[in-house]
């Protein structure tokens, strides 16, 4: 029974810390056009499935290249963002958006 309780607590704490690590990531494209380059995001770090992703033309309108399939919690594309999201070597790359896409 004790080990079951400890397992349950560990699972809960893992979920809690996963939520704490969620962030809002804004595309800057300051190094390249690669989604996978951590310095292309503000704050630095490649977005994960827990992160809200923003493309804002006031920050950057550089194209964003997906070289692998990616996930994000949500994506917001502001109307002043004129770049495109595209699959690098494969036009069938998948960007999974868990909670929603906002076009502002």
Overview of the structural elements:
By secondary structure, this protein is of the alpha/beta class. The protein has one domain (22-103). The chain has 1 helix and 7 strands. The strands form 2 sheets. A 5-stranded mixed β-sheet has the order 2-1-3-5-7, with no helix packed on it. Strands 4-6 form a two-stranded parallel ribbon. The longest helix has 19 residues, at 2-20. The termini are far apart. 17% of the residues are buried.
What is the count of β-strands? 7
Alpha-beta classification: alpha/beta
Whole-angstrom Rg: 16 Å
Number of helix segments?
1
The average pLDDT score comes to 84
Strand content: 25-35%
Tell me, what's the shape?
globular
Task: Kindly give the count of domains.
Answer: 1
Alpha carbon gap, first and last residue: 51 Å
Helical fraction equals: 10-25%
Would you list the SSEs in sequence order as H and E?
A: HEEEEEEE
Characterize the main sheet: 5 strands, mixed
Oligomer: single chain
What is the structure about, briefly put?
With 104 residues, the protein is an alpha/beta fold.
Topology, element by element:
Blueprint: H1 2-20, E1 24-27, E2 41-42, E3 52-55, E4 64-66, E5 70-77, E6 85-87, E7 95-103
Parallel strand pairs: 1-3, 3-5, 4-6, 5-7
Antiparallel strand pairs: 1-2
Which features characterize this protein?
five-stranded mixed sheet; alpha/beta; 18% helix; two-stranded parallel ribbon
């Amino acid at each position: 029974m004790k080990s079951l309780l400890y397992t349950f607590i560990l699972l809960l704490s893992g979920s809690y810390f996963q939520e704490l690590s969620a962030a809002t990531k804004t595309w800057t494209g300051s190094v390249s056009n690669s989604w996978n380059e951590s310095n292309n995001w503000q704050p630095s770090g490649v977005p994960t499935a827990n992160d809200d992703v923003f493309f804002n033309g006031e920050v950057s309108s550089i194209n964003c290249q997906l070289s692998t399939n990616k996930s994000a919690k949500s994506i917001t594309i502001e109307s002043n963002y004129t770049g495109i999201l595209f699959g690098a070597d494969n036009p069938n790359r998948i960007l999974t958006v868990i909670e929603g896409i906002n076009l502002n």
